[in-house]
Predict the structure of Peptide ABC transporter ATP-binding protein.
Amino acid sequence: MLLDIRNLTISTHTANGRVNVLDKVSLQVDEGEIHTLVGESGSGKSLIARAIMGFLSPRWDVQADRLWFQDIDLLNLNAKQRREIIGVDIAMIFQDAKSYLDPNLTIGEQLNEAVLDQDLSASFFKRKAERKEKVISLLHRVGIKDHEVMMNSYAHQLSEGAAQKIMIASAIAHRPLLLIADEPTSTMEPATRQQIYRLLAQLHARYGMSILMISQDLGAIMQQTQRLSMIYSGQIMETGPADVLLAKPAHPYTEALLNTSLYRHAEMKPRARLPTLAGAEPTLQHLPIGCRLGPRCQYARPICVKTPVLEKHRERQLACHYPLHLEEDHE
């Protein structure tokens, strides 16, 4: 197992006291797999990514029974140890890639910085040429053919898709073991979105790197992922092989997200309304007791005020007192 997270809790102070924004989240990513974390906006997906990378500010209190990358405890690294891992063995790409590119440097200059001296083998006087070759190779790997034009361009001259390709090129410069993609296509048109997802799938196939994909668009990623984890308001609802969860969702939240996706409504007429999950995700000041989906769940019963434990059911793990379709798995 490459990444192992057990009972990750992230809390912060609010006007109503300390609140667990993430509530005992467990998540595992195996070597060489694409694992997608799916949930509505504000569900805590990006907090998990930033906890892995160590990007959270001191106002967040991070606790976990286990937050390990391979055999390394990520919660107990000093600054030097973290620099040796983050950006090398673990890399991350973000939504709105343009805002993470330096507006004062050309793309070539920025990618030059991504190629470290330790990655070069030529003598000192030939390193500049070797570095340029590596930058050109990176651009070609992410599907940019006109490398000279791109290397002399600035961030403001790029489309959203091109900017994200540059961020991906920078992230894979060291061939990381784990790439975290935090909603990398949220600001893009559908065609560009699919192009970026296909690119990530191709890089995964070519290098065998693991990808933790973070998305709220279930329909866009289902063809590229091997495992799914569904998160709602800081709680993991269901996790398991993508084909199993898509065929027979056992948690009401997984079922609701599928029902709101074109995946199940390919034959809908133009301008027809998709089904929606009633209500809205709760604010930090008004988090429900127990299962946080309870107020929006049509299957909720009094016992749901008690937080369900994430338990294994054959190929999946599930946190629900009244799961769906499980009896069919035992027939």
